[in-house]
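We now fix the convention by which a protein and its fold are recorded. The integers have meaning only within a learned vocabulary of local backbone shapes. The record below shows the convention in full.
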Amino acid sequence: MLRFRDDEALEEPAVTLDAFLTQEDAHAVRVEAGEDVRKLIPHFGRLKLVEIAFPRFRDGRGYSAARILRENGYQGELRAEGDVLVDQILFMRRCGFDSFAPHQPLDPQLVEEALNRFPYFYQTAADRAVPVWKLRHG
């Protein structure tokens, strides 16, 4: 697992979205592709980990789910789990993911290279990187 957070990792297993919504003592949830993460917004106070499933690398719904959570103020751990490829790490980080549980191990050197490939971005994102146009024009 790759983790880009300073706090301690939660050891509690993630429950399904339906189970989380009915269990007052759950702090970790697993969201499957296509499930509506907006249901979690009222529960941010007790939520410590959201694990978003990527059943196939070409399924991009998890990116949208991450962005929705971050734009609505979720500050806890956001983990991409499943068919996560090194080529996706930078874009997943930009959407707000801060930990990764890929099915296949990723080479740490390739991950580092991927994360540092682009020094500037043109779009705003959940990572709050300042877009290059704003750097140029204030």
